[in-house]
Amino acid sequence: MSTQSAGPTDKGTGYAILFGVLATISAAVMYVGATSLAPQLVGAFGFAAVLVFGALVVLSIQIYD
Predict the structure, then answer these.
(1) For residues 45 and 41, what is the distance between their CA atoms, to the nearest angstrom?
(2) Phi, psi angle pair for 64, to nearest 5°
(3) How far apart (Å, rounded) are the C-alpha atoms in residues 29 and 53?
(4) DSSP letters along 5-64, please?
(5) Model confidence band, residue 1 (pLDDT cutoffs 50, 70, 90)
(6) Which of 15, 28, 56, 60 has the fewest CB atoms within 10 Å of its CB?
(7) Extents of the domains making up the chain
(8) pLDDT in tens, 17-60
(9) The predicted structure's pLDDT at residue 6
(10) Cα 62 from chain centroid?
(11) Distance between terminal CA atoms of the chain?
(12) DSSP, res 65
């Protein structure tokens, strides 16, 4: 009879990479937003997204560590 044991998982690393990529895309949106028709609005949404995804990177690493 075989037994299964819960081993370590790489979810924290995967989520950290995912949210890090999304934060980088959001930073690009913030940068590109400076040349758009509504630079303050687009930049504000990009900055807010960077902060949210950055917090989720740290949170995912802490939860799954």
Answers:
(1) 6
(2) -95, 15
(3) 13
(4) ------HHHHHHHHHHHHHHHHHHHHHHGGGSSSHHHHHHHHHHHHHHHHHHHHHHHHHT
(5) low
(6) 28
(7) 11-63
(8) 999 999 999 999 888 887 877 888 888 899 999 999 999 999 99
(9) 64
(10) 14
(11) 30
(12) -
